[in-house]
Design goal:
By secondary structure, the chain is of the alpha+beta class. It is built from seven helices and seven strands; from the N terminus they run H-H-H-E-H-H-E-E-E-H-H-E-E-E. Strand 3 and strand 4 form a beta hairpin.
């Protein structure tokens, strides 16, 4: 086996590996890398139909990557839906993803019968991409109990749409949000939170005062 064969096998391996990814962004990126390698390999051995196939696949991957990256912070693509804390669909979502939730939030426990709780689903079209659960703490603090993203969308930060729309908290009288303590692989520093102990804190702007004419 010469070095050119190794390049071909490497490209094929990357292509297969990409199909094993649950994260859509990573799948497309790895698939693109595999296609580019195979374009070079098949061009070197002059297998032009395979060159053409991989060029087409590369263009498709680039289009999807461009679309996903362009809309990752788009409020028209991702919406926040508030649901009841005892909502059956919320309970189903938590149950289905329980093992994965425990992996990133080992201390998570949700009691829907407790008072002063809020639940939000982050969705794109009719697909749930994230769950944010919180409860009211002392002195106007919203304590986040769970900030979970489904595996498919884990390269994104859909929870940001809950925090970006600070009115979801300010209208309830909160002026500060605290992340779950002990969360594995937190991303809050990218959303304007500051580290404080084993959590992250976001200070919310004051709720606008509406005056009468």
């Amino acid at each position: 086996m010469n070095w050119l064969d190794l390049v071909g096998w490497a490209g094929s391996a990357v292509l297969v590996w990409s199909l094993l990814q649950s994260r859509v962004l990573r799948l497309r990126a790895l698939n693109l890398v595999g296609c580019v390698v195979l374009i070079g390999y098949n061009a070197a051995i002059e297998v032009w139909p395979m060159v053409g196939l991989n060029i087409v696949l590369s263009v498709i991957n680039i289009w999807y990557l461009r679309t996903m990256l362009a809309t990752r912070h788009d409020e028209q693509t991702y919406q926040v839906v508030e649901v009841g804390v005892d909502d059956q669909f919320l309970a189903h979502t938590l149950r289905v993803h329980a093992p994965d939730i425990a992996r990133f939030n080992p201390d998570f426990h949700w009691d829907p019968t407790a008072t002063n709780r809020s639940a939000f689903l982050v969705v794109t079209a009719d697909e749930v991409v994230g769950v944010v659960l919180s409860h009211a703490g002392a002195h106007g603090v919203a304590q986040i109990d769970l900030d979970y993203v489904t595996p498919k969308f884990r390269d994104f930060t859909p929870g940001e749409f809950v925090y970006r729309r600070s009115r979801l908290f300010t209208e309830r009288g909160f002026h500060r949000v605290i992340s779950p303590p002990g969360m594995v692989a937190p991303y809050y520093h990218r959303l304007g939170f500051r580290p404080e102990g084993d959590s992250y804190v976001l200070d919310l702007p004051a709720a606008p005062v509406t005056g009468s004419a």
